[in-house]
Design goal:
Blueprint: H1 2-24, H2 40-49, H3 52-70, H4 73-96, H5 101-124, H6 133-158
Amino acid sequence: MKSKVSYFGMMTALSLILSYVEMLIPIHFGVPGMKLGLANLIIVIVLYTHSLKAAFFISISRILLSGFLFGNMFAIIYSLSGGILSLLVMNFFKKKKSFSIIGVSISGGVSHNLGQLFVAMLVVESYKVGFYFPMLMVAGMLTGALIGVVSVEILKRLRKMPIIE
């Protein structure tokens, strides 16, 4: 039990560090709030090495911690909506077994943006925010593919280590 707790703590800390590093990267995509999603790398890895429950715990912990440390309440709300939807969609496609890790990650990137866009529509009380969806879909596909490719390479190496079944 102790090793699992320390593993989950390490993965939460690593995802928090990746969130912070991403915040420091001065890349502006032209759409407010668009990011690379580096912390989702950890979520994809945990989803494939452990379980939905573990990935959910790490994702929620990271979102709350990074929101309180680096953001505000709106950042937490947007991240939670995108993160939860993304995780559920990725788990659904992972279970289908006809999608690769990259495909699962792409579905997560697109659904993360969709979840945040839905909350933005509720917050501003206008569907016009939805016009961002085509750009967000392309961005989610590109960043999801990038995270997926990196996840595949990390998982290859992790599976050679004795700590991962």
